[in-house]
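Human: For the file, kindly provide a plain-text protein record giving the amino acid sequence and the backbone structure tokens, at your earliest convenience.
Assistant:
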Amino acid sequence: MRIEDVDEPRSVPGAEDEIITALARHGFEWDGDIARQSARAARYEKALAQLARAGLVYECACTRRDLESAPVVHGERVYPGTCRDGIAPAKAHRAQRSVRVRVPDEPVTFVDRLQGPQSQTLRDEVGDFVVRRADGLYAYQLAVVVDDAEQAVTSVVRGADLLASTARQIFLQRALALATPAYLHVPVAIDRHGRKLSKQTHAAPLTGDPCGALLAAWRFLDQPPPPTPVRDPAEFWAHAIRAWTPARLPPVAMLPAPE
């Protein structure tokens, strides 16, 4: 279990307890102690130092306003390399600076277990991306790579909304000489307007019916139904572990939310 609270200013008091309680109520189990990104800054600092020794990072004094005119590719603003060769004298007075990693101009390729072959040229589609923010907090892309390696994660199964981040993470894994897990990106549930279900889009919260929620998610992923009615989460998971069939997953990025 890992609490990804690296963005501390956005952490909501009590949210962690609610998440852990909800997972337990739905029958999820985890091994060992709970890891929290907010307590792991020293590990991320060590990884950043390794990137610095390899000459792969540099300081950037650009603000969001500076980058408003940067090109947008696939809905993401591409960093134009403004500070790649040094900070301009006009920006030298800015004390707060982020740290960016230099990306190559050749594609990063991998095969997703569901979405198939993937290729992204980071230089063209993302640009040099931030690994430590101007406020001193480490970026998610670096934190998750360090954490996956330390926790010996071999398989990552997550929503297809994170598919575009995978090339960045693989690039960092290679730069840090870390193993690359196998990736499988499942469809994301969307509302009738095509928006991902979330608090921001006013998605309905979990109800007091764990089995109903688990079965709805199971049907959404087109998995084999239980042969008999399930009465509690333990019965659901006993069936799910036996019946999980990745080949049946819909090979798309988004699907309408289950009824």
